[in-house]
Amino acid sequence: MEDLRWRRLKIATLNELNDPFEFYGVDLSDEIIRSGFKKMKDELSRTRGLLCFSRDWHNPVQWSHYADKHKGLCLGFEVPSEHFGSVNYSRNRFSVNPELLLNYRQLDLETQIKLLFTKYVHWKYEDEMRAFVALEETDPDKNMYFKRFSSELNLVQVIVGAESTVTRDEISNVLGDLT
Predict the structure, then answer these.
(1) Environment class of residue 125 by beta-carbon count within 10 Å: exposed (0-12), middle (13-18) or buried (19+)?
(2) pLDDT in tens, 153-170
């Protein structure tokens, strides 16, 4: 409700994601790759974060994981497709040249996309779309980052969880001119 009130979404930082193996679609059996990859992820996490969306809000497992066991809300957005990429779900890790990870800014586009958009196959139920965004607006009291609703992040739907105590009136009051 607070995000609706302030017309914003929380940006997930790379080091706080619920899957500790996020971005580990790459084969890390080599120490140089492991070290380079950790350095790259730590460096990126200081300036970039994720907005993650699912194409389908009907999955009860997602409500359990992401909406406080069905007590929360699901926000539906219209977003330009050029700002988002589809996650690729894979059973196998891929290889990268260790030298490239030492200076990740020189990674070719195909490898960057693989690193940023590959997840283990067991997460496939999420049917995830994601965008990498700059860490901009902060809430210093909570040490969090946010992205404001806009024409590129246009709220179009609010779905109330099956166990939620939030009323239609409460949502209408918070949405105000967005309804």
Answers:
(1) middle
(2) 999 999 999 999 999 999
How far apart are alpha carbons 51 and 127 in whole angstroms? 14
Sign of CA dihedral 136, 140, 143, 148: negative
Length of the chain (residues): 179
Q: What residue spans define the domains of the chain? A: 2-178
**104, 40 contact by CB (below 8 A):** yes
The pTM score is 0.82
Average pLDDT, integer, range 9-33: 83
Q: Which of 11, 7, 50, 9 is nearest to 145 (CA)?
A: 11
pLDDT tens-digit map of 40-87: 888 888 888 999 999 999 988 898 888 889 999 999 999 888 878 999
